[in-house]
Specification:
Layout lengths: L1 E6 L4 E8 L5 E8 L9 H23 L8 E7 L3 H18 L3 E5 H13 L5 E5 L4 E7 L2 E7 L5 H11 L7 E2 L2 E2 H5 L13 E2 L2 E2 L2 H12 L4 H27 L3 E5 L6 H13 L3 E2 L11 H13 L32
Parallel strand pairs: 1-4, 4-5, 6-13, 13-14
Antiparallel strand pairs: 1-2, 2-3, 6-7, 7-8, 9-10, 11-12
Helix pairs in contact: 1-2, 3-9, 4-6, 6-7, 7-8
The structure holds fe (ii) ion (FE2).
């Protein structure tokens, strides 16, 4: 079985092709939108996606060496994400499904981040910390769905790091080959007292921490000290919630996924925590931490095997589509498992 998947929820238009037989990943084409100045405008992203979509699909078919006839279904991320961006991917996917006479498979973008982590880390039933620019949650599978064990009450972890870096003038770019810019800036820093560490029940909150960090810089604190304090508190709070989920569920595997999953100090904390519970920790493969079409194709493939499809006429995009609203009948199956 072979599925082509389309990702277009944020800044990346991705097309992946995945098979249920080795080598599993047949193509991974990514077209990333880079604003010339400032942040991402949904309308501009959508027009960029429209320009590159045809080329991306063509390149994915070429790279995979398959023809439309070999493909069993077209998967698409219908949410959560930015409306105008989502609609481009949905339109392209519907058109391909119609033209090729193949089923259309609805995929939740967040569920896809979870599945690519299980797949690349080789973990069947882990507790998962999902941390990205727009998402921060601790989740694990229970009774047919991924359940949210804890999440952010305000901004996401990636948003916290990026906003701070931008406001104090050390980014963009936010990331280079040595990691996140805040982690690099923290080197040689010392921990500062009196920053808010907020874990309410199972949830975390970062807006107070962001305000405190920006205020500290303004009043002359050393940038390295602020960066270190910010990231120590932020990472420790998400690891604390992950640890509670692990202890509560008694599971024996842990992973981290999403754009922030590549941050080395966070991985180290997760590793230490998992070890103290006798659990295995393996993060998502670095190249699949960020948005990509492969994770959509992978999740679509698993879904199609269980008959999960959608009528193209009813395949609406959902900007706020939570992971705990999605049935996951294929769990824990993934290609190669
Ligand atoms: Fe994402």
């Amino acid at each position: 079985m072979i599925v082509l998947g389309i990702e277009s929820t944020a800044h990346t238009f991705g097309v992946g092709v995945v098979s249920d037989e080795p080598p599993f990943i047949l193509a991974d084409i990514r077209k990333k939108y880079r604003p010339k100045t400032g942040g991402i405008l949904p309308r501009e992203v959508a027009s960029f996606f429209s320009e590159v979509a045809g080329e991306a699909v063509r390149e994915a078919l070429e790279a995979s060496g398959v023809t439309p006839r070999d493909i069993d279904g077209v998967a698409v991320a219908l949410g959560p994400g930015m409306g105008p961006a989502l609609r481009v991917g949905a339109t392209v996917a519907r058109a391909l499904a119609f033209a090729w006479g193949k089923p259309l498979i609805p995929v939740n973008h967040a569920v896809a981040h979870l599945e690519i982590a299980r797949f690349t880390a080789g973990l069947r039933d882990p507790v998962i910390l999902y941390v990205a620019g727009g998402n921060t949650m601790v989740t694990t599978f229970l009774d047919g769905r991924y359940r949210v064990f804890g999440e952010t009450l305000d901004i996401a972890l990636g948003n916290l790091l990026d906003t701070f870096a931008r406001e104090v003038g050390i980014a963009p770019p936010y990331f280079n080959e040595k990691g996140h810019i805040v982690d690099q800036c923290a080197e040689g820093g010392e921990f500062l007292e009196d920053f808010p560490y907020v874990v309410k029940g199972q949830d975390v909150s970062f807006s107070g921490l962001l305000t405190a960090a920006l205020k500290a810089v303004k009043s002359g604190a050393r940038l390295a000290d602020v960066c270190l304090t910010l990231r120590e508190i932020a990472y420790a709070s998400v690891v604390e919630v992950t640890e509670r989920c692990l202890a509560h569920t008694g599971k024996k595997e842990v992973t981290v996924t999403g754009g922030v999953a590549s941050n080395e100090p966070l991985r180290a904390k997760m590793e230490t925590m998992a070890k103290s519970h006798g659990a295995v920790f393996r993060p998502v493969a670095r190249e699949y931490a960020v948005d990509n079409g492969v994770m959509i194709a992978l999740t679509g493939l698993a879904a199609l095997r269980e008959g999960v499809t959608v009528d193209p006429l009813r395949s609406f995009v959902r900007q706020r589509w939570r992971v705990d609203e999605v049935d996951v009948p294929w769990y824990p199956w993934l290609p190669g498992f």
